[in-house]
Each structure stands twice: as C-alpha cells, then as structure tokens.
Amino acid sequence: MYMKPNKMKRMTASLLSLLTCCCSLFLFSCSSDEEGKASPDYSAPAHVTDLQATPIAGGVVLCWKRSPSNNFMYAKVAYTDAKGVDQYVLISAERADSTSGLMTTTVRGFAKEKPVTFNVYACNVKGNHGDPAVIEATPQAPNFIKVLDKVKVTAAPGGAYVAYANDFDETVKVKLVYSSKGDASKKDSTTLTATPKSSGNDYVRFDYGSEILSGDCQVAVTTLDVAGNESDAAVTELSNVAAIAQVDKSTMSVPGYNANSSDGTIGYSSQEAVGEGKTNGRVVCLFDNNLSTFYHSRWKGDGGALPQWFIIDLGKDYPLAQIELFARQDSNGWKGQKGHQIFVCADKDAVDKNDPTSWSWKDCGEHSFDPANKKGQIIDLSPYQVTARYIKVYIAEKYRGNGVYAFLSEINVFYIK
C-alpha cells in the first residue's frame, strides 16, 4: 500500500513519542521500587543482658536475656573445654522465650572443678557481633568420676567380675587395663558401658592375644564421659586368678548326628541339611573353628521355628568356666535369636546315652544375646560350679529375634584348669 511521505513522518513521530513515554514510565517504576526497599542491617546487634551461670555436675547452665535488636539472629557461646580446645555453641534467637526473652543452654564435658570463662555474643545473620557478655563459673565434680567410686573388681576364673552402679542420667564408660604382675608386658584393655540409671556385675576375660592371663594380676580402672574426659585410675591387685583353657573341639560331637537329614534327633531339634550348601546349616558347624559357617534350624520344610535346641558332647567331664557364642557373621546375622537357656549334665547323670530326656540336667540360667554383635559373647558358668560332659542350648520362643529361626556361627567352651 502506498503512503504519502508527510503522513509517514507524522506516524513515525507519534510512535517514537509513545515509546519514549513507556520507557519513562518503566524507568520511573523501577526507580520507585528501589527506593521502597529497606537496606539490610548488618550492624552488630545490641548485647545480651542479665547473663547468669548455674554450676552442675561436669557442666554449667547458662541463662541470659536476648538482644533487643531486630537484626539479632543467634547467640554464640564461646569457651575453652577441659582439653584446652576452644569451643562454641550457637543458639537460635527463635529459642528465646516469647514472653520473657530468656535463652538458656547447658555446657557439659568438664573434668575438673576449675573456673571456666564463658563469652556470649549477640550475632546478626552474617555473624557480626559486638563485645560479649562475660561470666565465669566453676563446674561441679563430674558424675563419671563419682561412678568410679562405685566400681569394684574381684577375681574370677580367667578374669574378673566388674561391679558398677551409674545413678546418673548420662552414659559413663568404665575402662579396664589388666596386666600380669609377673610380666608387665602382658597387658590389654576393655571398656564397659554403664548406661544411665544402670548397674551390673559383668565378667571380663583377661585375653592377651591367644593367651588368657591368670595368677597374680593388676587391674587399673578409669571412668570416662561421652566427651572422652577420663578419671584418674583406681588400681586393684588380684591374687591367684584361676587359669582356664579351651576344650579341644576335635573331641566334641552331637548325639545322634545325621549329616544327610534336616530332621531332629536325640541331639537336636532340627538343622538345615539341604538349603545351606554342602556343610552349612548343620549343627556340627558350631565347632568347626570356622566363623564363616553356621548352624541353622530347619527352614526348608516344617519344624524350624522356635523353640529349638541342641546338645554338645564334650567327650568327658570338665569343671566348666564359660561358654562363648558367636552370632552368624554374614548380613543375615542380625535376624537371629536374642537369648539362650543353658543346661549341663555330667557323664554319670546321663545313664541312658540314647535318651537325653532321662538325663539329670542342671539349669545354668537364661542369658541375653545380641545377634548384631559379631564378637564372642561370654556366658559365665563359674558361679554355678558345675562339672559336666554335655551342654544343652535351648532357644525359647520368647528369645525370637527379627527372624523366626535359630542360628549361630560358633561355640567355644572353657574349663577351669
């Protein structure tokens, strides 16, 4: 379409005028938005006030009133711990009481009754702060040291009994360093866990490599808190720790054992002779000196659910000291049973060798078991003072774990020499 030059000039001028107007409005709008925005306040907030400290066992409770500044985001509590390391704790402003503005925190982990200086800073979102509020406080004697006063060590065959009482609402570790008085180079250690409000009398075996210490021994006991602070040692001298030795597994057997069947016999309730390969699953795996193999109650077919039991023949009578059980070591081990009941029988009390139900069994108690623990778990038999040839392990339904079957990797038996 043809348009006259003058008309085209007039339209072009109008269009340019309109664009200029729109740009002006846009720029004005942007400028107005920028002017309406508040600039961030990165200045240091006002100090916290009314800082107070209350000593507690092994720590201090700090309390203060929050900073009144609008840009106050958190409080930083700085101090030096029991090991001389600078530490700090951050407490969000949101934790301040909505009415009083009070904030509080508990700082634990101090091992000594020595003054500690606490600096409490009021910080903004970038961590900027002014001078701190400062207070000094002396923690009370820590609870883990008080637990040491209630630890008692007494001799036992091949080791010691460690009695303890933790009356406090915190976990305490009890560390024992045991050694032979005749050869101080023979030394090792172990640690027990005293959970809050607990007591116990645990047996500790004096393992030293492949040896078990006996005779005159020394035990140095310390207690520790969760921060790793450790008490001074309390030393106990033990005289004539009875020597123990392991029963030779080549002499062990199971009454009525049949490698080719999963059915029970006079010596066990069931085993898995089909579904676990050529050797695994069978009851004799319990004493093959191989932690990678395991006994499994029957699972292909009926009869493998709890309760289950098995009998081990040691070959002759022994003055029994302890049994050591190992959980199944593979990824399914955690599903196993959580306890066992132990019975023993002397050779003279097993008159009819073909009928264990007629034997005079002695009950040696029920004992908890952790299927997730891959280390050996000791059942101390020395308090029962039994001499026996046969050991029966009974796994009741009440000890059912996360699975319905029974299984174990290995069993070690120790006797008093």
Briefly summarize what is shown.
This protein has 417 residues and is mainly beta.
What does it look like?
- The structure is a single chain.
- By secondary structure, the chain is mainly beta.
- The strands form seven sheets. Strands 17, 19, 20, 21, 22, 23 and 25 form a seven-stranded antiparallel sheet that branches. A four-stranded antiparallel sheet has the order 4-3-6-7, with no helix packed on it. A four-stranded antiparallel sheet has the order 11-10-15-16.
- It starts with a helix and ends with a strand.
- Helices cover 9% and strands 41% of the residues.
Unreliable residue runs: 1-5, 18-32
Number of strands: 25
Task: Classify the beta-strand content into a percent band.
Answer: 35-45%
- Tell me, briefly, the overall form: elongated
The residue-averaged pLDDT reads 92
Helices and strands in order:
Elements: H1 5-36, E1 49-56, E2 59-65, E3 74-80, E4 86-92, E5 102-108, E6 116-123, E7 133-137, H2 143-148, E8 152-156, E9 159-166, E10 172-180, E11 187-194, E12 198-205, E13 207-208, E14 211-212, E15 215-224, E16 234-241, E17 244-246, E18 295-296, E19 308-326, E20 339-345, E21 362-368, E22 377-380, E23 387-395, E24 407-408, E25 410-416
Antiparallel strand pairs: 1-2, 2-5, 3-4, 3-6, 6-7, 8-9, 9-12, 10-11, 10-15, 13-14, 15-16, 17-25, 18-24, 19-22, 19-23, 19-25, 20-21, 20-23
